[in-house]
Amino acid sequence: MTDRNATAAKASNEDLRPLEGLSRPADAQERIAGAVRTILEAIGENPEREGLHDTPQRVAKMYLEVFEGLYEDPRDHLKTQFSADQHHGAVIVKDIHFHSMCEHHLLPVHGKAHVAYLPAGGRLTGLSKLARVVEGFARRPQLQERLTDQVAQAMEDVLAPEAVLVVIEAEHMCMSMRGVRSPGSTTVTMIARGTWKHDHAARMEILSLLRS
Ligand SMILES: [Zn+2]
């Protein structure tokens, strides 16, 4: 496992905040479709031929779907909370499958997120809500480092836990189908916040549970 905290921390000073979404342009679908048509023409294809005729509109609808996380604030999912006074242990959700799009190539990234936190003051959220947060941030033009950071930040902002750990393992199609062409290689990013940031033993214990 590679500790990419340094990379993520550097990026977090720039464009990682705020986490809230954008407003969607009213003509988004038409503009995407027009751009796709332009790409087809630019590569020498004929956008009017039968197989490509509906492609610009089809791709436009798909883009609006895979980028729909741009138009929400995924932190809202965590506002559904309940308290459990007796619960003082860590909460771990493993293998949250997600799909995203690399913002450098607009090619898919897919993988798994593992999320853990140590609740403070008995503040807990539903397990499915953590998956929704991952999905909300994943459905944006993304960098894996930023996705990792944003999930951790959202949990800190809303749950104010004693500690947070987010690990993401993903395959980037821009590495598999072009450039260095290394299919199957996985990029791992990790962020630890709160007490787990400095408590090496506690962090290793959670990591071994995440990876078991
Ligand atoms: Zn890429």
The residue-averaged pLDDT reads 89
CATH class of the largest domain: Alpha Beta
Residue share in helix: 25-40%
What is the tally of helical segments? 8
The CATH homologous superfamily of the largest domain is termed: GTP cyclohydrolase I, C-terminal domain/NADPH-dependent 7-cyano-7-deazaguanine reductase, N-terminal domain
Order of helices and strands: HHHEEEEHEHEHEHH
- Strand proportion: 15-25%
Number of strands: 7
CATH-defined fold name of the largest domain? GTP Cyclohydrolase I, domain 2
Q: What structural class do helix, strand and pairing data support? A: alpha+beta
Small molecules held by this entry: zinc ion
**Could you say which overall geometry the principal axes of the C-alpha atoms support?**
elongated
Major β-sheet strand ordering: 5-2-3-6-7
CATH architecture classification name of the largest domain = 2-Layer Sandwich
Pathway: Cofactor biosynthesis; 7,8-dihydroneopterin triphosphate biosynthesis; 7,8-dihydroneopterin triphosphate from GTP: step 1/1
Pfam families: GTP_cyclohydroI
Family: Belongs to the GTP cyclohydrolase I family.
Binding site for Zn(2+): 102, 105, 174
